[in-house]
Amino acid sequence: MAYYDCEAQSFFATTVDVDMSSLYKRFLRELVGGAAILDAGCGSGRDARAFRERGYAVTAMEPCPPLAALAEAHCGLSVEILRFQDIDWVGRFDGIWACASLLHVPLAELPDVLQRLAHALRPGGILYVSFKLGRGERENGGRRFTDLDEAALGELLRLVPALTVAEIWTTADRRPDREDERWLNALLRYSHSP
């Protein structure tokens, strides 16, 4: 949080114009037009704006107040200042977009956070997540990261049986000069059991 409080403007500038359309395509094909989407950890507001412009009902949340203010100005939506660990929505969204945001949650807290996100989905809803490809927790440049590979994600999901993998793939970073960085992407389906 301290990193983003201080670096909100530079983070906004380096991420707001990144073309994410290929990832949007995979996520949005799982949803009907006008579906309710949560942009969880919306950062610059880039993705919330893209979904809103495509006609979806978007809710955006971001734990860092300075970044939330920049996101609001960019996406034209009110951005809730909220940590993943405090999410308590139930059955509100058809899709949740958690792009490069859950990677800042400590590994020990991820099962609870994923369970909270699952409960925020309607039955059959879809959750998109992305993590830097790797394994373990680390600090880099004042930020902490939880890196996952496919096996580590599988281990994590065994603790959250309500979520099952619909699709999993890897991509290169979309930012200039960072193409060597690899990302683990997954679409997770919420299988509600009464």
General description of the model:
It is globular, with a radius of gyration of 15 Å. It has one domain: Vaccinia Virus protein VP39 (Rossmann fold). The chain has helices spanning 2-15, 21-28, 46-53, 65-75, 110-120, 150-157, and strands spanning 36-40, 57-61, 79-80, 93-98, 121-132, 136-140, 143-147, 163-172, 182-190. The protein is built from 6 helices and 9 strands; from the N terminus they run H-H-E-H-E-H-E-E-H-E-E-E-H-E-E. It is an alpha/beta fold and 194 residues long. The mean pLDDT is 88. The chain starts with a helix and ends with a strand. The strands form 2 sheets. Strands 3-2-1-4-5-9-8 form a 7-stranded mixed sheet, with helices on both faces. Strands 6-7 form a two-stranded antiparallel ribbon.
Structural descriptors:
9 strands, Rossmann fold, alpha/beta, 194 residues
CATH topology: Rossmann fold
- Name the strands of the widest sheet in spatial order: 3-2-1-4-5-9-8
Which CATH class applies here? Alpha Beta
Rg result = 15 Å
Distance N terminus to C terminus? 36 Å
Shape: globular
The major β-sheet equals: 7 strands, mixed
- Number of domains as seen in the coordinates: 1
**β content, as a range?**
25-35%
Estimate percent helicity: 25-40%
Give the gist of this structure.
The chain is an alpha/beta fold and 194 residues long. It has helices at residues 2-15, 21-28, 46-53, 65-75, 110-120, 150-157, and strands at 36-40, 57-61, 79-80, 93-98, 121-132, 136-140, 143-147, 163-172, 182-190.
